[in-house]
Task: structure prediction
Amino acid sequence: MATVAEPAVAQRDLLARIGIRGLAAREAAFAYSIVGVIYLFFTLLVFGPLLLALYVSFTKWDGLAPLGEARFVGIDNYLLLFTSERFLVSLWHDFEWTYKAYIGQIGIGLMLALIVINISRYQTLARLIAFTPFILPIVAVSILFTILMNPVWGVFNAALSFVGLPSSRWLNDPATAMDAAVLMIIWKYAGYYMILFITALLAVPQEYYDAAHIDGAGPLQTFWYITIPTILPAFVFISVINVIGNLQVFTPIFVMTQGGPNRATEVVVLLMYNTAFNNFQYSVANAMAIVLFVIILVLTVVQMKVLKRGAAAEE
Amino acid sequence: MAHVEAEIEHVVAEPALRVRRSARTGLRWQRVVFEVLAYLFLIIAGIIMLLPLFWMIVGGFKSEWEVTAVPAVWLPSQWRWDNYVYVMTQSLIGTGYKNSLILVTIVTVIQVVTSVVGGYVFAKLRFPGREVLFIGVISTLMLPGFLIQIPLFVMMAKVEWLNTYQAMIVPFLLTPFGIFMMRQFMTGLPTEYIDSARMDGASESSVIWRIVFPLVKEPAAALAIFVFIQHWNELFWPLLVLRQRDMFTLPLALFALSGDYNQVFSLVLAGATLAIIPVVIIYAVLQEHIIRGVTLTGLKG
Result:
């Protein structure tokens, strides 16, 4: 601690001068100055934009003219959205993307985790490989999968014909484009969810398993009555971040399909982007953002409630 | 210091991987069947996870007809390093690389520092209103990027910050997530060293620099890796504020490349391979830290 110690005399002088109370005051002063900077930052760059979005969503504004020219229109933008088939369809595409990705990512992630924690060797290697897709830039991966899914010469069709299945048009067919795009996101994130579930599963006390074993429970019973209830809080947490993340999907769709073909993959954030920056209906785009945010909020709260009920049922 | 480090190890380390004992207590032949099936399954899963990457990296070395050949050609007849040289020097990828390296490095360094300072203030300093003010900070965690960034774009346009580095740096100088994560970690640290240093008359900044930073090296590194990877891969915000090609970051450059050279897939694959190199290097060197870090960083997806 030599680095911070000062000569004993100076130290005594300092303590005498400011005293313990002075020390506490100095501590609080420093804290408030930092907290002040943090709040200044958030006011300008978070709360400010948030209020702007909220205000603008009740006006008609193109985002280019001075803000003073924004005309107040009440809830017209919101009414427009809920009567716009295009928006409602994009909302549905968001849900479709989310539930398919959820099932794939969480299902495969949990299954891989259950397998990996029960093998006797190469666990580290398995984690290492599974995690690789997660760290890669999503743009690079999206471009790669677009190439792999080429309907004419893509390797995926070669793989399909290798196992005797008919070839697919993948991203180029409105009927399969969404599934094809979701396939990429499952590939990218399954290993990530595996890592999260491994952490949750390792936190289950060994005694629980031993007790279940002594009572003669089989693997399925053990999983249902021991593992699931114990990891429930972690599961809900993982589930919440999955839904929050997936409902905001933009980049993979933007890169792989641009919302097509035939708007079959047009999700809300993509429509929002095009509405703001290609159609210059900036205020409508902000209303979309707020609607999607409220949906995310509601789904998060619902999942938390389920957790509370599950925890209460335990007792 | 030794026991402090031991305590940090204790806080940071996740439970070591271990084989479930119960899994071993079953009948021996059941165990063997399980292991065989498990490894078989994992090998297939591993191939599925790695084969696309292999295809991408090797594809960057191919001539154009070899990428689009039917039936598929797995290895190039001649390894064309020229593809990589061409993409790096003659396309936007070189520019994107430069911009991304500069911007991502700056954002990472600053955000780690502000997170440590903010985390320290909320974890270790005593002042009236601390809890309420902290709740105010983490309440912004709930706000999704698109909701803030679309209006933020207009603000950037108003102050004429479009196509500038500051538009890519300033909004990320501090994040509620970074502060939250460092605070969670620091709450578990012993306070004696900090208090005694302060009693010795050390200023708050020297307490942070000399005492706090060494104690939080591990989670700070985890946060740094996380921020680096996140910003290296980010497309949405740069897409909004960077419209001039010479300002493009790597993901933007890559996206532009895949549009420009729509027919030249070998070059696109070479560009994509170049884009993954920094994160792959970081991952190769710091594997376990990254995996542990992601579990630690509260799993922000």
